[in-house]
């Protein structure tokens, strides 16, 4: 009877905690189950997520620092403290005050974890599971090598065209806008294709420089969007030629297009359709490697590598394109060298972890990873480039 009474007393004392924990767990399960229903997840992504997005973005944008990144660090601290408190409990288990404190701490951790999982399910998993680009593109089909070749030549042609149209100074260097002006132009460009992809209509907050930019740089990560705070952050050691595409990529995530190939495609399409020549230059340059890689492997699979190398030789980039890329990379390198990097001795470790992470992500996401952008471009143009 004493054990039964002790259990009853325990549940009585912690009634509010158990009610809150069960409620959050039920909501997580329900949200996950709902996200498996195509009609719901598509409706949520197109009509509910966008309603939440704007007001939350205005609130977090008022903060001069990346709240999402700060919360990530705080979470790491809470986990470390949990380990410390557990260790101390071995020695202080007879101290009722400390036992109560530890119990309260871990109950708080449980509720925070459940809340994070609920927000993650609603703000990331549900829109991630929605139809690719809202299901507005033609159905996927088998594309011929000739269609792949046409897309490849289209991108090369437009890179060269954009290269010749961007503003340059007296020494021939590309004149880039400030970060703020670029963000404004990208925002206009994203809203400019909202007629086709309705979720893109709305407010785009400025992207914040990540405090851990050096770590992102070692891991080959350009930026990150926090679904909890709906903030966008970027690796501040980013070259100016890449920045418009990076910002538009993260902006696509911000608007609920969380699949990587969706964000790559929308980034490309928005900037490529912009009136600004620098945005167009960034768009075609950004997407070239994906299209080139797809054409290469398609040619190899078809036993047509001679044709691929002939095209690469017959339709080269203008020499100025490579100069512009080098100069943009030089800017990024200079930005990096001007800062102190206290953890630089761990850069090789970060790079090794990154390689495993990219490979794992590619296996998990499959056609939803970054490389899938070529498929979306083929679906979007669907013979219109001929």
Number of domains: 2
User: How many beta-strand elements?
Assistant: 3
Mean pLDDT: 90
Helical coverage, percent range: 55-70%
Strand order in space, largest sheet: 1-3-2
Assembly annotation: single chain
State the end-to-end CA separation: 83 Å
Low-confidence stretches: none
| Helix-strand category | mainly alpha
Number of helices: 15
Global morphology:
globular
Strand residue percentage: under 5%
Write the H/E string, N to C. Answer: HHHHHHHEHEEHHHHHHH
What is the gyration radius calculated from CA atoms?
A: 25 Å
Q: How does the major sheet shape up?
A: 3 strands, mixed
Explain what this protein looks like in three dimensions:
This protein is mainly α and 386 residues long. It folds into two domains: 2-130, no CATH class; 140-381, no CATH class. The chain is built from 15 helices and three strands. Strand 2 (223-226) and strand 3 (231-234) form a beta hairpin. The longest helix has 34 residues, at 96-129.
